[in-house]
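DM from R.C. (forwarded with permission)

"hey, sorry to bug you on a friday — could you get me a structure for this? deadline for the figure draft is monday and I only need the backbone to look sensible"
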Amino acid sequence: MKQRVFTVGLSDIGISQLYLCREKLEAVDQWFDAARIDDYEPLPVFDFGNGRLTLTDGHSRAFTMLCNDLRTIRVVLDFDKMITSEMGQKLYIRDIEWCERKGLHTVMDLSDRIISEKRYVVLWLERCKRLRNLFSSDITSARNIAERFPDMYLYGMSFNGAVLYFERNNMYYRFENGIMENDEFFNNAETGDM
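My reply, with the result:
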């Protein structure tokens, strides 16, 4: 079944990631040609229940288009199983929540969140893996622990469930063996000291 492609304003589309990878943006910028915009695949979007279409992929391409003075883009509804599954819905809804917590609403809001690939792997890909670990287990005990720290935001868990990951005011923490401590790995990535 062929999906309907339609055009929307870039500023009307929500985002589902916190950062852009500098190296990936440079690669996209190398092949992108605004004169050939209709030759490119439409970007995938989905409404996760908030009444707004959100990019499920293609944030770097959308940002590059915006930087090339394009204000509208061609999109297609994303019905990939990863998006429509129960797990996919949970993950993307939380990604959108993360963006809202940081005041990020459109790809333009990512202009000052372009980071090196090394930092991107930690701050975005590892963060997503930690979230998936959290949602892949019974999170009842994690929520009970999180209630002890109401000023902190639970965002993930280690694969074995032994460590919970929190954030507060752009600082990252890990809770392990009953002790809350700085997550130096993430904090160093956040400040660029890695």
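R.C.: lifesaver. Strands lie at 5-9, 20-21, 43-47, 53-55, 72-77, 114-115, 153-157, 163-168, 171-176, 179-182.
me: no worries. The chain has a mean pLDDT of 95.
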